[in-house]
Fold this protein.
Amino acid sequence: MAEQAVDRQEQEYPESRPQQPAAQKEKKPKKKISGDQWVAVGFLAPSFILVLIFVYGFIGWTGWVSVSNWNTLVPDFSFAGLKNYIYLFNDYRFQADLRNTVFFTILFIGLVIVMGLGLSILIDQKLRGESLFRNIFLFPMALSFVVTGVVWQWLLNPSTGYNQFLALFGIQPKWYTDTNILAGFEWGSIEFGLPVAIIAVVIAAVWQMTGFSLAMYLAGLRGIPDELREAARMDGASEFQIYKKVILPMLMPITVSVIIIMAHISLKIFDLIYAMTGSGANFVTDVPGVYMFETTFRGNYYANGAAIAIIMLLLVAVFIVPYLLANRRSDG
Amino acid sequence: MKKLFGILLLMVMALVIAACSSDSSSDGGEDADASDGGDSGESAESGGGGEGTVEIFSWWTGAGEEDGLLALIDLFEQEHPDITVDNAAVAGGAGTNAKAVLATRMQGDDPPSTFQVHGGAELNEGWVAADKMEPLNDFYEEQGWMDKFPQDLIDMVSKDGNIYSVPVNIHRGNVVFYNKQVFEDNGLEVPTSYDEFIEVADQLQDAGVTPLALGDKEAWTATQIFENILLGELGPDDYKSLWAGDIPFDDDRVVAAAEKFKTILGYVNEDHASRNWQDAAQLVGDGEAAMINMGDWAKGYFSNDLDLETNKDFGYFAFPETDGDFMVITDTFGLPKGVENPDEVKEFLSVLGSKEGQDAFNPLKGSIPARVDADESKYDEYGKDAMADFNESNLTPSLAHGSAAAEGFVTKANQAVNIFVTQLDVDNLINTLKNAASEL
């Protein structure tokens, strides 16, 4: 079965595998497709057709709208070229969105990996009550981003909760209402730098998603046989060296998966921001998803909204496509 | 194995055919469906003419407003027991979700029988410009409504001499609510001019009270302040000319208004970006802040949610320098094109526009009636005041609520204001508005 799968792949992408001997190709027409395969095709066909129409068809449709003039309530499908894209990249709000997305993604993924890895190593130390800790850290994942957003909106509201306690010590963080840009410099029409307010959103997102990377890493750690650690110890490696030289390299595939999954969450994030901060003063916590929603459904700029959607798709594709390609190579 | 495959293939084919045929049948039946709003179509189709369904599309799902809508529907059903009402309200703040659903349905040629829309540009530059509405001039004549609604208001629901919808309620946008206790403690009088307002604000600030509460998590609350300053600065006639495009946005008075806006923003609570208008109003209720500029739906929030007493715990006054003006936010209902039973929809509109209908709806919703001859005794203290003002004042359209300009411009103006609140860059605001003016 596995062999057949590979063959099928080759039929679809013959040019991507030039190293295959030609002889093998000639054999193919003789092969009969077995009944099992027809059954598989029969089962797959409906969902394949539906996905083709309702996912790829509509992506194509969105792409078409994004180069049209449809920016009012009246649909207008005349061709506008790249007008909408040019408008967006000159737009203050969209530039701010891109800046926020960059910093949010870097901070979010970095922290999720560091904290997930750290916690999973701690939990992996065969401590008592392990499952309790694991459940505690995993629990936030059971919440929706909207719930997380509302909770953290109040936790990090400068005038409520423990911020009043902090104020007793003279610490008054402004969290997501802070409009400062750290290390900012002029770039286009915006100030490029780390928006302080985005840190508050990152905290909420990390709180929610750390459990996920923890679970992934824990599974990875469990998959590393004890013999390897023992062997390293026999060779005189310290515990630190074991982690650095043996365990972490072996966790690399997990890290890649976590990065891919977190990247697609963070690039498309909408619900957390919408529930927690909205666009923020001066758009310090705005992201493309929120802009897309508002410009399309409040401003009736359908073509602009479609263009934002396409840009978001391309951003995610930058992460996903290399991953998929690499996967295919290693499967083959 | 082959048999199994054959069966499977058959099943797939059957599925595909079923999907296609149900598709085509709904295509064929679309015209019939559209008339009564799709889902509840059966009764209308089988009934044939005499009886039918009227689908009322709104975003009235909140406490008072839903009660008002249900009271209105009750009244209608008493008068027309043969017509079924389908209450198709879509929840979501300020109609954001409802408007998205509506746009989808209108573009799919499946309009509801009638739908909620703000009078002014949202109606005229939106649905009327998109050629989706039927004119109602004859209907107004028939009902004898031409002198029952203020002329300014009829103008707001008219385009090129045709009337397109029936207003059901009025809210006022240029109101400042204030905490009476705070004013008393500091020995302050209600300010009537901009200078007095600044004086009062300074004294409050010295006393350690936030002068003006603002919750601009959604930018329209700040836009609302700006439009009121514009109204004060330009006066009602030039304010309207501004939105008609006859006065440019770099006019000296607009710049002066932006400067005043900048000054006033110096008096707001520091955490304004984290609050919505209710959270901000709460500051006033608690006495942490003294005043808030908000449409008079805030009155319902003060008395119902915060349990405060009108004219005892909190008071109200017109936004400084807009005393004789009335910033109108009006919900209206029209007749979309392509509705199959327009006569029945008109029956509903006639109840909606009637004195009884408006008096059933508005006291519950906490708004005042759009008609000039409503029964005053049914309204509370604030309502009576507002009704008196409504009859005497110049009516002006609100930008923040989509009456003054098309939604596209409003969105851009809100974005510009959001940036302005932080950057306080007057030139930038004026420039952005000027660039967006092509969409007026």
User: Anything to note?
Assistant: Chain B touches chain A through 42 residues (CB under 8 Å). The longest helix of chain B spans residues 2-28. The two ends of chain B are 68 Å apart (CA to CA).
